């Protein structure tokens, strides 16, 4: 650094033995300006020494440069010392005050800057059009609205109210202090063509969710002919996205293209984000592909958008492409990809992402810890979820606690959910809407009726949270499982609004367990009206009739489905093995190992029969002989998947993990428990309702599912 600095020689070498040549205030001021850099404090201090030895340190111009130099070198105390030791005659110089105030603001000491301005006013030193914007920016940073209003009054009294710099700073002050009405008044009375205050107000309107006003200001800027730049367009696009008006968004996109800002990365990122939020992934991908340069924000916007939309395979592919192009993911990108891993049951990929997260140090972020807990909980690895939770001791929020409470509930560990909730309250965390869904769900699957009722009633009484359809659905499920179907119907009558489809489905499921056909028909009729294209209520009603042996009614429901064009979602089971996903449907013989799989199924059925298994043909969906019903049940998709798992995982002790898109039937549930016992395996089955951890003939759900 020394070799790069060229300080003017103040003492010519030829005259060193004769007499020194002292600098004047202007040359010394230029030298101090040259030393105003954080990398050059030593040279600045040498220049200060020259100022002292040449008796120029008290000169107002040199003193101001010294204050500015020390401020630029991040030495605010030295700057204040220069100011405090200046002669009284210099303290009437407003440039000196302004330089010190600007230095304090530059070094983040906004309160001290405001106090210096107050002292400046007390001493009768008038501000200039640089002093006022500086102190106004300090007020904005501290959100000191009252002090800022006083500075505004000072600007009006001293004639600087019309200064473009002052007006821009006033807009920033009022915007940062959420007084958008005052900011708007300042802006509307301004004759300046400076786009900065307009951009400031548009940004703050967007941040305050006043999107219509932000778009109105954007239109006014355009009509006034003000320059729209890389600061204007992103905020306007963000407001257009939240407004949900695709027409406005496309109009702004056209303006971006005409003005040539489509190649600007920040504007292009805002365009991708806008189209993603509007769920217009075709245009989002089009902008993305045309960008000459993409950063982590670009990739993350598209990745997280697809993850939220449910396009998890696309999100995972984007993450892979992102890494292949050398873009380092941030905490938002990894949280998004973990969400997709959780939803697509890609546990092994999720573990790889977890390892990369630890390597990059991203596990320190709360959002990432929460996503990891959710991943492991939704993949049936609840002990790994707990391990992540324990490591996040100093960075837990309500979402962290709720994620594990929900995880325990879904994995059949209702008691652990309730104990964790007590620990959550003991840690001072406040439960939210989702927390109570997990709690009541846990009580439902553990058969804890009274505990569930207590938590449900505490929502509004203790925490002011109004129960929603999800809570009523869990309560109906809880009461229905315990045989209190009439009490469940009574609870529905106390709802503030009309029960939605999820609530009626819970009631219909309870009717199947307790074979309450009249109530099942009533619930199904409501569902036919609420969700006419949903096949689930038809299937559930048919199952009620099947359990009761009313095959003519089963045929009638199926005929009704055909007449209304409603198709049943086919049942699928799948598992991950050898880096690939293997999917099965009932009776499926298309798999490459079909011959081995069906042979293993026959072996499985023979071995569990020796343990006392007898097929519950009430779960068969066709009216045929008992033997035919038993054969139909034997080749359900989850049994084929387990057979495949037994064939391909015999040599290692890992659990057999199977995922199913529908609810497991009672006969398969019984059969899989016995299969886990006779083969000495752990079978983890996730159906549409919860996880079933099966070992030694016992399931974690306690046969409540």
From TrEMBL:
Domain DYW: 612-705
Top-level division of the source organism's lineage: Eukaryota
Coiled-coil stretches: none
Keyword field: Repeat
GO molecular-function terms, A-Z: RNA binding; zinc ion binding
Family annotation (InterPro entries): DYW_dom (IPR032867), E_motif (IPR046848), PPR_At4g14850-like_plant (IPR046960), PPR_rpt (IPR002885)
Record GO biological process: RNA modification
One Pfam family, short name: PPR
PROSITE patterns reported in the protein's UniProt record: PPR
Swiss-Prot/TrEMBL PPR repeat ranges: 93-127, 194-228, 295-329, 397-431
PANTHER family from the UniProt entry: PENTATRICOPEPTIDE REPEAT-CONTAINING PROTEIN, TETRATRICOPEPTIDE REPEAT-LIKE SUPERFAMILY PROTEIN
Name this protein carries in UniProt: DYW domain-containing protein
Organism of this sequence: Zingiber officinale (Ginger)
Lineage: Eukaryota, Viridiplantae, Streptophyta, Embryophyta, Tracheophyta
């Amino acid at each position: 650094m020394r070799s790069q600095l060229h300080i003017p020689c103040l003492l010519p070498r030829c005259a060193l033995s004769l007499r020194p040549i002292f600098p004047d205030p202007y040359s010394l001021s230029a030298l101090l300006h040259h030393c105003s850099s954080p990398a050059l404090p030593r040279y600045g201090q040498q220049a200060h020494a020259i100022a002292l030895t040449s008796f120029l340190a008290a000169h107002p111009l040199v003193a101001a440069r010294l204050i500015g130099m020390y401020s630029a070198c991040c030495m605010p105390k030295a700057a204040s010392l220069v100011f405090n030791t200046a002669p009284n005659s210099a303290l009437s110089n407003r440039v000196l005050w302004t330089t010190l105030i600007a230095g304090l603001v530059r070094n983040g000491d906004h309160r001290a800057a405001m106090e210096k301005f107050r002292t400046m006013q007390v001493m009768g030193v008038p501000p200039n059009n640089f002093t006022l914007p500086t102190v106004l920016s300090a007020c904005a940073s501290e959100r000191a609205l009252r002090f800022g209003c006083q500075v505004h009054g000072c600007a009006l009294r001293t004639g600087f109210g019309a200064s473009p710099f002052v007006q821009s700073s006033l807009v920033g002050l009022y915007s940062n202090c959420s007084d958008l009405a005052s900011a708007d008044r300042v802006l509307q009375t301004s004759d300046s063509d400076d786009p900065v205050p307009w951009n400031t107000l548009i940004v703050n309107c967007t941040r305050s969710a006043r999107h219509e006003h932000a778009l109105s200001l954007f239109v006014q800027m355009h009509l006034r002919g003000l320059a729209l730049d890389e600061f204007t367009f992103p905020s306007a696009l963000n407001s257009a996205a939240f407004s949900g008006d695709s027409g406005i968004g496309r109009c702004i996109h056209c303006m971006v293209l005409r003005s040539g800002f489509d190649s600007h990365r920040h504007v292009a990122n805002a365009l991708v984000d806008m189209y993603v939020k509007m769920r217009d992934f075709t245009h989002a991908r089009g902008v993305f592909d045309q960008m000459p340069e993409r950063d982590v924000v670009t990739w993350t916007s598209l990745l997280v958008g697809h993850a939220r939309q449910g396009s998890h395979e696309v999100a995972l592919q984007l993450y892979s492409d992102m890494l292949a192009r050398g873009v380092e993911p941030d905490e938002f990108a990894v949280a998004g990809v973990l969400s997709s891993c959780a939803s697509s049951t890609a546990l092994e990929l999720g573990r790889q992402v977890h390892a990369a997260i630890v390597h990059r140090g991203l596990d320190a972020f709360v959002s990432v810890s929460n996503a990891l807990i959710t991943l492991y909980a939704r993949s049936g690895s609840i002990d790994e979820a707990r391990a992540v939770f324990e490591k996040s001791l100093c960075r837990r929020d309500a979402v962290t606690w709720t994620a594990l409470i929900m995880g325990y509930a879904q994995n059949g560990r209702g008691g652990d959910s309730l104990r964790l909730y007590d620990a959550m309250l003991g840690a001072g965390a406040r439960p939210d809407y989702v927390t109570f869904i997990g709690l009541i769900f846990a009580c439902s699957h553990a058969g804890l009726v009274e505990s569930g009722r207590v938590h449900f009633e505490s929502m509004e009484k203790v925490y002011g949270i109004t129960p929603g359809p999800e809570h009523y659905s869990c309560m109906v499920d809880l009461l229905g499982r315990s045989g209190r179907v009439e009490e469940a119907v009574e609870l529905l009558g106390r709802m503030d609004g009309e029960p939605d489809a999820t609530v009626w489905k819970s009631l219909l499921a309870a009717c199947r367990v307790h074979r309450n056909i009249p109530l099942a028909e009533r619930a199904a009729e409501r569902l036919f009206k609420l969700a006419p294209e949903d096949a689930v209520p038809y299937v559930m009603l048919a199952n009620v009739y099947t359990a009761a042996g009313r095959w003519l009614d089963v045929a009638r429901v199926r005929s009704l489905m055909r007449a209304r064009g409603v198709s049943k979602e086919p049942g699928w089971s799948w598992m991950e093995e050898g880096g690939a996903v293997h999917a099965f449907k009932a009776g499926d013989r298309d798999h490459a190992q079909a011959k081995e799989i069906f042979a293993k199924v026959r072996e499985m059925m023979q071995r569990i029969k020796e343990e006392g298994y007898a097929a519950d043909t009430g779960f068969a969906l066709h009216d045929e002989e008992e033997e035919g019903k038993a054969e139909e049940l034997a080749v359900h998709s989850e049994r084929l998947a387990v057979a495949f798992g037994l064939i391909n995982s015999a040599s290692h002790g890992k659990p057999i993990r199977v995922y199913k898109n529908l609810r497991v039937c009672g006969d398969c549930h019984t059969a899989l428990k016995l299969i886990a016992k006779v083969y000495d395996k752990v079978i983890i089955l996730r159906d549409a309702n919860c996880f079933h951890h099966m070992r030694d003939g016992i399931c974690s759900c306690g046969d409540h599912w």
